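// run 5 | inverse folding | seed 20
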């Protein structure tokens, strides 16, 4: 059964996947930045005693090791990729970075949308450190800093327990948890960071520290939503695991028409059952091409219900009253089979993304505006699947106070995300038009949205990014940063500013 439903969903998704891997088109401003050359002496000193592998340009595996998920940043080439195998390797890298002040970036899964895990200096990659150890007695799991969602799933799936995590199999646990961590379990169990009970990290002095709520409550507060790359290189995380049983997963697709009524009914469904259901709903065009008409936009929702199929079908009655879906895949399955069904393909392409939060719901006027913007899409080679998505992130996430962890967006019901994606065939002027569309669309939607943004969906052009990512928690985060990283070793374009 698993194969059957996974295949169905994959086939459906592939119609508009982000596109094939593409040649890098990093913004000129990034490529123009001069790289501080480390020099052969520095690299030799790092390579000495290195237990993993230091990979230099031109060596086997370099291109793959340097390649980020968003190919927009693939032109940002590191001087070396330090594929760390141990915590001691990470310490060697940080010691060298501290001594030479050379630029560096940390990478785990490599999925940062804005290229913050790319660098023209040293790329410190922990991906190979991907062990997961389950402690059933204490109902915890230790996840090494390089493990991704798939590694965690493989270690837990036979034991009836799970950690709330995201949809993409190769997103790193590090990036996910440090920024918060949305997934289909969030409304029921909380964010990924809400299950974190401790973490090990190599800080600016190159010392390794293990922190939790007792040993350094402020830093532990900061790493739960403060974003990756700010306080140190995390080498391990301890999570509480949660028992899981049967869930009902669903994928419903409606033919074009009644988009506003359907999206309103989907929001009503979510808000009526805030902790029992999780929806990811959107409108999208049937085909690639400029200016899709309103009557070519269809509605899709993908989700998970923490209950049985019969009850879900009853709950869906108001939606069926608006319109009967063309596709209605509804499966009562074991949690892990459901997770497999809900996985996203692993897109690897060229894209730009923006997001805000929705306080309660998108009104009729807001949805009308969103659909109008979709019809103004300037065109390009790819079908746009992600022009406007509502990720449910209320429920349990809202039960935690906004100042209890650095993740501040606790009074919202949705992340609203919009995206433009293109392929190598699209000319620079086409891409420019798409990105201008994205900016204007985003700006125009702000009157309906919270002036906030999810640090795990970052954008380099975001004005007031620090306020948008951290809001009222910004000052406290900066104070932690000043104490833990006083010389701002861990810095990049949108790192937490020193107070
Ligand atoms: C296809 C796709 C699907 C996604 N799906 C979801 C989803 O379902 N839910 C969700 O919440 N988000 C999702 N995201 C966003 C994702 O959570 C963030 O991009 C996340 O930060 C990626 O983590 P990473 O380790 O893969 O990326 P990386 O690019 O390796 O790291 C992200 C940031 O964390 C830093 N970092 C990485 N490792 C460490 C470490 N060990 N210690 C300290 N800092 C580190 C990096 O320097 C960078 O700033 C998705 C992204 C993509 C591209």
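// decoded
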């Amino acid at each position: 059964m698993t194969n059957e439903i996974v295949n169905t969903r994959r086939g459906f998704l592939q119609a508009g996947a982000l596109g094939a891997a593409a040649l890098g088109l990093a913004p000129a401003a990034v490529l123009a930045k001069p790289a501080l050359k480390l020099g052969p002496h520095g690299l030799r000193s790092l390579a000495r005693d290195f237990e993993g592998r230091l990979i230099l340009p031109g060596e086997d595996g370099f291109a793959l090791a340097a390649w980020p998920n968003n190919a927009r940043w693939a032109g940002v080439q590191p001087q070396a990729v330090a594929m760390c195998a141990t915590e001691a390797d990470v310490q060697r890298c940080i010691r060298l970075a501290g001594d030479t002040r050379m630029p560096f970036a940390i990478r785990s899964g490599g999925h940062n949308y804005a290229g913050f895990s790319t660098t023209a200096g040293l790329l410190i990659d922990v991906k190979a450190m991907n062990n997961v150890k389950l402690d059933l007695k204490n109902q915890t799991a230790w996840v090494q800093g390089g493990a991704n969602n798939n590694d965690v799933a493989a270690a837990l799936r036979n034991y009836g327990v799970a950690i709330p995590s995201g949809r993409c199999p190769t997103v790193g646990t590090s990036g996910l948890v440090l920024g918060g961590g949305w997934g289909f379990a969030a409304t029921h169990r909380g964010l990924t960071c809400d299950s974190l009970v401790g973490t090990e990290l190599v800080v600016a002095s190159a010392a390794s520290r293990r922190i939790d709520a007792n040993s350094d409550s402020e830093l532990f507060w900061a790493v739960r939503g403060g974003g990756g790359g700010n306080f140190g290189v995390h080498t391990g995380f301890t999570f509480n695991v949660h028992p899981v049983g049967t869930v009902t997963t669903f994928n419903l697709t409606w033919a074009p028409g009644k988009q506003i009524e359907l999206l309103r009914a989907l929001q009503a469904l979510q808000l009526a059952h805030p902790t029992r259901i999780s929806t990811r709903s959107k409108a999208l065009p049937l085909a690639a091409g400029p200016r899709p008409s309103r009557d070519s936009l269809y509605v899709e929702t993908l989700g998970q219900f923490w209950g049985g199929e019969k009850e879900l079908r009853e709950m869906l009655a108001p939606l069926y009253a608006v319109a009967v879906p063309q596709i209605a895949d509804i499966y009562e399955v074991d949690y892990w089979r459901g997770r497999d069904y809900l996985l996203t393909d692993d897109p690897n392409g060229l894209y730009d993304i923006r997001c805000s939060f929705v306080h309660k719901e998108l009104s009729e006027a807001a949805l009308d505006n969103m659909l109008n913007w979709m019809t103004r899409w300037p065109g390009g080679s790819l079908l746009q699947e992600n022009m406007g998505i509502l990720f449910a992130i209320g429920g349990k996430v809202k039960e935690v106070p906004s100042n209890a962890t650095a993740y501040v967006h606790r009074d919202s019901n949705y992340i609203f995300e919009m995206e433009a994606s293109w392929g190598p065939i699209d000319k620079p002027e086409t891409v420019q038009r798409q990105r201008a569309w994205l900016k204007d669309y985003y700006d125009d939607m702000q009157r309906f949205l919270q002036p906030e943004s999810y640090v795990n969906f970052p954008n380099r052009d975001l004005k007031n990014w620090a306020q948008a990512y951290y809001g009222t928690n910004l000052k406290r985060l900066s104070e932690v940063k000043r104490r833990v990283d006083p010389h701002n070793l861990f810095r990049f374009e949108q790192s937490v500013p020193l107070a």
